Amino acid sequence: MTTAKRRRIYLMRHGNVTYFDDAGKPYLPEAVPLNEQGRAQAEAAGRVFASDGVRFDRVIVSGLPRTVETAQGVLAQTGQDIALEIWPELVEIRGGKLASIADADLQEAFTGAFEGVVPEHRRFLNGESIGELMDRVHPALERLRQDSDWDTALMVLHGGVNRAILSLALTGERLFLGNLAQTAGCINALDVGTHAKDWVVRFVNYAAPAVLQDDTRSTTMEILLEQYRKSRR
Question: In degrees to the nearest 10, what's the CA dihedral of 122, 124, 99, 29?
Fold first, then answer.
């Protein structure tokens, strides 16, 4: 009897950022840095890896500042000096112009892409569709799988992108499970084998330091919607 040889991906969502000001006006999402809480979450995740002696062969980020800062915060705790690989095809699902969304359509625009099994035509904030997101995320994941030059990888990405990866790993199908929570700074662990459906999902949405996640029962997009509504009043 042989033991399957799988490699480990630690998949993180970036730490917390501030997307809207106190009046509900949006900051440029491509440029927002981690806020104080986000930096603490990155450091807490790094301490989790360090306590178990985890060493990364590769660290992959989308290139947006919030993923770069999170990865740097993790590596500062593990004591590893690894050059970050920027994979721009793994940036977050792209929204459209918030100002163009009618008041009556805000709820659907903000939360509709993260409810249940999401149809591919569903668009996020009147921007990119779920199908278009999977069209760029799935090939990138396969490219990583086909490269044999690593055993343990850290990927620091985004809530929507992580859902696309986790949905594929959990089902083996081209599906998008929108209600897979991805708390800011969370860690997921996935083992990947040599064939397309050889995935083992070890754990999902482990959020240090708030492991029990008892501070809210709202989703990220529900919270952001309420912040943005201030600008419409």
Answer: -170
Backbone angles phi, psi at 203, to 5 degrees: -160, 160
State the DSSP H helix or E strand holding residue 154, giving kind and residue range, or none if neither: strand 152-157
Q: Which of 203, 195, 161 is nearest to 178 (CA)?
A: 161
Interval 94-118: pLDDT, tens:
999 999 999 999 999 999 999 999 9
Q: Which residues of 122-138 are buried (b: 16+ CB within 10 A; e: fewer)?
A: bbbbeebbbebbbebbe
pLDDT digits (tens, 9 = 90+) for 9-61: 999 999 999 999 999 999 999 999 999 999 999 999 999 999 999 999 999 99
User: What's the CA gap between 143 and 12, in Å, rounded?
Assistant: 19
The angle formed by the CA atoms of residues 88, 50 and 85, to the nearest 5 degrees, is 15
Tokens 């996640």 sit on residue? 213
